[in-house]
Write a structure and sequence with these properties.
alpha/beta, Aldehyde Dehydrogenase, Chain A, domain 2, 2 domains, two-stranded antiparallel ribbon, globular
Length: 185
Amino acid sequence: MHEAIYERFAQGFAERAKHWTVGNGLEDGVRMGPLAHDRRLPAVGALIDEAVTRGARKLAGGHALPGKGYFYAPTVLADVPDTARIMNEEPFGPVAVLQPFRDFDAVIKQANCLPYGLAAYAFTQNARRVNLLGEQIESGMLGINSFTIAAPEAPFGGVKESGHGSEEGTEGLDACMVTKFITES
């Protein structure tokens, strides 16, 4: 987020994350479910610890939760340097990684720097910036002012090393079609 609101946002976001209910996702009121398997617990922890070692601030979470299951506290890291592994590897865990920005073009460059492009999210109140984000972000799916990027009737797919082509939606039917071009004079 822009440096003008960064610290206020980071603190507010972390405070909310501290109060999210973690548990069985089928139960009412639960906001965060388990990790995929037991190997994710130390993997997520290692990424967080390494980021903190490199200078990130841990504002919330950062630890496995006690009890049965593979539960990890929702974690918010601020001021995460680009050199931290978590900036270049998917944590597959409940970790929000925050960095301030000043310049829009630098944000686009940072967002597109990895060889992956499944999904991206952006939040803005500027209509011109909405269009620029749509044009310049290299991802198969982009949520602007929304976390909803998947629906049964919409295509699902990435770009770069996150995949080519789409599944679902009418675009997903293309792989099942035999296209023939016929011309006659």
